[in-house]
Design goal:
The structure is a homodimer. Chain A has 9 helices and no strands. Chain A is elongated, with a radius of gyration of 19 Å. By secondary structure, chain A is mainly alpha-helical. In chain A, helix 3 crosses helix 4. At the A-B interface, helix 6, helix 8 and helix 9 of A face helix 6, helix 8 and helix 9 of B. Chain A binds a DNA duplex through helix 1 and helix 3.
DNA sequence: CTACTCACATACGCCTCGTATGCCAATTGA
DNA sequence: TCAATTGGCATACGAGGCGTATGTGAGTAG
């Protein structure tokens, strides 16, 4: 075969990321034993340190993977809207829906920021906020959104609100009702960005 | 003396909380060694386990203390506003300003949620959001804020946005400029809650 | 075919946490 | 005032978890 070596390496990396993602997403970063989840991938910590440097490095890789998937999903859903403003709103609500998934919530919104710091400083992530920033900029150009607004800043505030909305829904005893209230409140906040006639 | 025992106990608790607060606020919860910061208070882990059960229990106590201080500060500042809406807005911006302090940011917005979970579920904290919820309810009664809105949900979304705003400012290279942009964007979002004439 | 590279495992020591146990001072009741 | 007792806090011990140094064997190049 041509490059069995490179393939084995990629496979090892993928297995480690998958095992770590599973562990981080369920028991959490701090409680995830490197010995345990590397073993569950049929490997040892030796492989982990070789490829990712340390536990944080592996978390970064996991986050990069999830972030990529989220960006794809957001784009899929939001591209069906009729107006650009609706497109933007759909993007935000999709973001909330994704944040409802325990794995995403735990890794992207809780352990990630705690271990790696402000997500805005992450090197490879936040493709979603980038997309939201683009839309806000375009909406400003079209005069839909107030001109006196920094798109990237606004995108990040919305991101924070989304995360809280998702947590509120996820921890609710009546997720259906809470979801309605949270999304309504969220859309109401977004209305503040629109230019008034 | 009358109650030297009770006083010593209270002092011990206070010293532990102060030492932990210092450690958590600087190096962070995970990196703070219980042996180290109890020693810096002239005590050992024995005292810690006796009073707080475990490391998480101590973090809860630290959070309760900080939360109380934040509530006091918010009330002090916001009570000077002329209208209730302005009062509410001041409350929010004060919240952002407090979230700029590294200790508060680290303990209340990063390590706290990561270790103890959703702040909304904390038993003794979030006096600030409670206050914001009250104001929103009152503003609804006065017809200033749209009726179709759950105050507590809205308060928590705002809370999330505030936290992001603060992080953005704190990590900025030009905090002055970023602060202006972040607070402007934030107020713009709040406008969405007001009833239109 | 030989020597080198490198992916990964193994082995070791340090640190941290939690618990079980012990000690001494303060309180209580007479 | 003097036992008896409580309980605040320290000490001692064991169990992991992490990071590093080192080893090994398979793939690769010249």
């Amino acid at each position: 075969m041509h490059r069995p070596r490179k393939e084995m390496i990629a496979e090892t990396r993928a297995k480690l990321i998958a095992a770590a993602r599973q562990a981080f997403g369920t028991v959490g970063y701090a409680e995830a034993s490197m010995d345990d989840f590397t073993a569950s991938a049929g490997l040892t910590r030796g492989a982990l340190y070789h490829h990712f440097g340390d536990k944080k490095g592996l978390l970064q890789a996991v986050i990069a993977e999830i972030d990529g998937e989220m960006a794809v999903r957001v784009n899929e859903v939001a591209s069906k809207a009729s107006t650009r403003w609706q497109h933007f709103v759909d993007e935000c609500t999709t973001y909330i829906e994704m944040a409802l998934e325990p794995e995403i919530q735990r890794i992207m919104f809780r352990d990630g920021p705690a271990v790696l710091g402000d997500p805005a400083q992450w090197p490879n992530a936040s493709a979603c906020t980038a997309s939201m920033t683009d839309h806000l900029t375009a909406l400003q150009g079209e005069g839909v959104v107030v001109a006196d607004l920094d798109p990237e800043t606004a995108a990040r505030l919305i991101n924070g609100a989304s995360s809280q909305a998702a947590q509120r829904i996820a921890n609710s005893k009546d997720p259906e009702a809470t979801s309605k209230k949270a999304i309504a409140a969220f859309k109401q906040l977004l209305e503040g960005l629109r230019k008034k006639p």
